[in-house]
Amino acid sequence: MPIALTVGLGRFIAALRYADMPKDALPVIHTGFTDCVGVMIAGRDEPPAQLLRVALAPPPGEATLLFGAGTAPAPVAAWINATAAHALDFDDVAQRGHPSTVLVPAILAEAQAIGATGRQMVLAYAAGYETWAELVRRDADAHHNKGWHPTGIFGSIGAAAACASLRGLSAEQAAHAIALGASQSAGIMANFGTMTKPFHAGRAAHAGVISARLAASGFTAALDALEHPQGFLAAVSPAGRIDVDSPMEAGRVWKLARDGLSVKKYPLCFCTHRALDGMLDLLKENPLDPARVARVNVSTSRRNTTILRNHRPQTGLEAKFSMEFAMACALVAGRAGLTELTDEFVRRAEIQALMQRVSVDPDDREDPATPGYTPDDLVSIEKIDGSRLESRKITTVRGGPQEPLAREELWAKFDDCLRVGATGVPARPLFDSLMSLDQLRHVRELPGLAL
Questions:
Q1: pTM listed for this prediction
Q2: Cα–Cα distance for residue pair 73/372, rounded to 1 Å
Q3: What is the pLDDT of residues 312-343, one digit of tens each?
Q4: In a 3-state reduction of DSSP, which class is residue 118?
Q5: Is 242 helix (H, G, I), strand (E, B) or coil?
Q6: What share of the chain is helix, strand, coil (3-state, %, to 5)?
Q7: Which stretches of 70-117 are DSSP H helices?
Q8: Which of 61, 91, 342, 405 has a C-alpha 20 to 30 A away from that of 242?
Q9: Pick from 119, 129, 97, 104: which is nearest to 270 by CA?
């Protein structure tokens, strides 16, 4: 008989207290907030955020839009801000998706509405992340393989959990909130490389705020919406191999502490990052004129090749989901940053020519004994003189839990993002406040959020 997962998560959310969190979870949450705010500001003027803002035409409200001029009602602010945070695909990665790009904008918007403290916001993030992780672990199969964007389908539930915690909902109300979030899960991979991918994150953040507010008002949903045979887990499962029987781990086995976050060094799909690390290492050790490259081969997982669907991109958005572009970009520019993700750079003749010399081989190896196993990435370069360079076998990614960025590296990325966003918000005070978020007595103490 299935466990009462929906009700159990409601109880976890309602009972969660700041003292319950392991100490090593707190730096992860600080990093999630900080990195997300940075990329949100960098993405504030991107077309997805600006077009959405124009289309929604929100009236003034209780939450700041994009750390700049203008406000909106909290649900709409969460929607626009989360879209901006995901617009550059520069936000963190964990639990098969992008948790902070959904959780942080939802929490910041609703925190302004209720006047929350830093500790309340930190606790809300923990509730959202752990709820998200609890659902992810119950299906061993990759949701990308069925065409789902995990950020969209899990994000609405995680954001509902976060906002339920922030509002101090009862266990039953919190269960209704996450069930409401489940019915708003959405996001398909066919829209990767377009403005609709960041829209998935925005819509999930909006759904989380609305779900918690509705539940607080007495709006009901099924108290078995997650585990029911026609519920969330069964509906989105790629192969139907879901676990609805094992005891709940949320609150006992802390995924924040165990799994952490991967902070992106490059503003491209995370599936390119290990290969980019490998290529840039090769070029650092062996400086190479791109004209001398005859062929580049990348071996990576089948999942990565499925997600990286654009083989001859023509725009910056399309290039974010192209391994061919990532390799050509590294060869030509010696880096892969925001300045390279432009239509003009992507269409340069040498980039277009180099992409045709890149081949990507899917690696279908699996390890049944290791859940979530991903085969190593490997990059090789064949030069026109017939000689060959080969990277190390790349098993981890820089910025991931195994190779985390140092505080000064996080600051360097944050500072760059604020320069791109050009809001006038003082970068260092905002960075320091976010990196010690639980010490704030009120959300208004965050620079750039005062109303």
A1: 0.90
A2: 39
A3: 999 998 999 999 999 999 999 999 988 899 99
A4: helix
A5: strand
A6: 55, 10, 35
A7: 74-87, 99-114
A8: 91
A9: 97
